[in-house]
Design goal:
With about 475 residues, the protein is mostly helical. It has a domain of about 300 residues. The chain has 16 helices and two strands. β1 and β2 form a beta hairpin. α5 runs antiparallel to α12 and α7 packs antiparallel against α13. The longest helix is centred in the middle third of the chain and has 57 residues. It is globular, with a radius of gyration of 23 Å.
Length: about 475
């Protein structure tokens, strides 16, 4: 290995260590899901025992819908358990508990069974996961289309408050997901997570808030065609960041699928230009294009960061912290930049209804997005959203009187074909197996959509889970 390569890897290793992206020890392999300290026992013991007895699975403790992990709570004999700087149990007795070893063996056996299947180039297309990803992607696209429609309604009555209107979404995320997080963790453990990882969640929330803000802001200075072309940069950012930071290696068919989807998006934009629906010249094209470029970059980084989070943490934890810090950041931003917009804004029952519709659709988007990030990837997430423009035109023809160009159906089909080609690799697990979680996904959480949970369920179906009954 050359000196330059060693130096490059050293830089990446330091970056991984700073963000806790690198390999972890066996004591860290359960993450937050199986972490139980002595001062948490009194708060959680009764709830855990009740849930275990009701499910009839003493070995598997469900933490939420789709968030199940085999855990072992410390007994009186393990009072010497300590917590290291990452918040994981550091004693050898807890890190090598029989239940943790049984889970690791079940995951390894399950992955071996799944990956040993005789697969063809089209095998993944016949799985339920593929069609679920396509369906979820279209639901997310419809949510984006709905939020854009409600925003258009608001702007039409001179209520242009991009930061303030998104504030309610983050508040709703807090109301939904924070109580669930506190129920499972308790105040003490939740506060320790804030002290330990709060800065990471702050970065994630900041990227998300600013990505939303600058993308909406760009449409006020440039035309729609330019803004959407620049939004392609988010896909480029996702691919590059996943390759260098998360060590994802894309196959030729995956690159071809992404290019086909981008080609379909290009047809959509071309038809917009032909029909003159791109908005024409903007007030300040250069300024708007720069805002769009910045927003696309922030979106790409935040999508990759969120994929890493939901692969290692429960969804309720990620969304609750995203909401908490999102409210703080967005609230400050709205107070600074949206003050003057309130003076000339229209406020009536109709505007309130549009704000409620915008908030509900965006909250659904945020709540469902982690599933496609687990079952697929940030790249699949961004590519799926390309179809939002097609649905936007369908809404436009019914609501705003737009005329559909003949290129639109062709573009939509091309995007769907691109998604199909992306998965023509023969892997039965698709993108759900994350390379940064280790060969046996030991650093990941066994949550809904993850390869780890699929492996555990497969091992139990085959009777290889060490006597554990049922499915996680």
């Amino acid at each position: 290995m050359s000196t330059g390569t060693k130096y490059q890897e050293s830089i990446f290793d330091r970056l991984f260590a700073a963000l806790d992206l690198g390999p972890v020890s066996s004591s860290d392999n359960q993450g937050y899901q199986s972490l139980r300290t002595d001062d948490d026992d009194d708060h959680h013991e009764n709830h855990a025992d009740t849930r275990a007895m009701a499910a009839g699975e003493p070995e598997a403790q469900p933490t939420a819908a789709g968030e199940a992990v085999i855990t072992k709570y410390p007994s009186e004999a393990n009072k010497d358990t300590t917590i290291n700087q990452h918040g994981s149990a550091a004693s050898s007795s807890s890190s090598h508990s029989p239940d943790a070893e049984a889970e690791a063996a079940a995951v390894e056996a399950g992955l071996s069974q799944l990956e040993a299947r005789n697969v063809h180039w089209y095998s993944y297309l016949l799985t339920v996961d593929f069609w679920v990803i396509i369906a979820i992607g279209q639901i997310l696209s419809l949510c984006i289309t709905a939020t854009n429609t409600f925003t258009s309604f608001l702007v039409s009555v001179n209520t242009n408050i991009p930061a303030f209107q998104t504030l309610f979404n983050y508040a709703l995320l807090v109301l939904i997901w924070l109580p669930l997080t506190l129920y499972h963790y308790g105040p003490r453990k939740w506060f320790r997570i804030v002290l330990r990882d709060g800065w990471k969640y702050f970065i994630l929330s900041f990227l998300d808030v600013e990505g939303n803000y600058f993308t909406v802001l760009a449409y006020g200075y440039t035309n729609i065609l330019s803004a959407q072309l620049i939004n392609f940069w988010s896909i480029v950012c996702v691919v590059l960041l996943s390759f260098f930071l998360l060590r994802v290696r894309y196959r030729p068919l995956q690159i071809l699928g992404i290019l086909l989807c981008c080609g379909g998006m290009g047809l959509l934009l071309a038809s917009d230009h032909i029909t003159g629906s791109n908005g024409g010249a903007g007030p300040n094209m250069l300024k708007g294009d720069l805002f769009a470029l910045l927003g696309a970059t922030l979106y790409g980084v935040s999508n990759v960061f969120e994929e890493w989070f939901v692969s290692k943490r429960p969804v309720y934890e990620v969304l609750s912290f995203l909401g908490i810090f999102g409210v703080c950041i967005n609230g400050v931003q709205a107070g600074i930049f949206d003050r003057h917009s309130f003076e000339g804004a229209t406020w009536n029952a109709q505007v309130a209804g549009w704000l409620i519709g915008y908030t509900l659709c965006l909250c659904l988007f945020y709540s469902v997005a982690p599933l496609i990030l687990r079952m697929g990837s940030a790249a699949v997430f961004d590519v799926n959203l390309l179809t939002a423009n097609f649905w936007g035109v369908i809404i436009g023809t019914r609501v705003f009187g737009y005329v559909v160009h003949w290129m639109y159906p062709i573009a939509f089909v091309l995007i769907i074909i691109g998604l199909v080609v992306y998965f023509l690799a023969g892997s039965i697990l698709g993108d759900s197996k994350k390379p940064w979680l280790g060969d046996n996904q030991k650093e990941g959480v066994a949550g809904l959509g993850t390869a780890k949970l699929k492996a555990i369920n497969e091992a139990r179906r085959k009777g290889l889970a060490g006597g554990a009954e049922g499915q996680a």
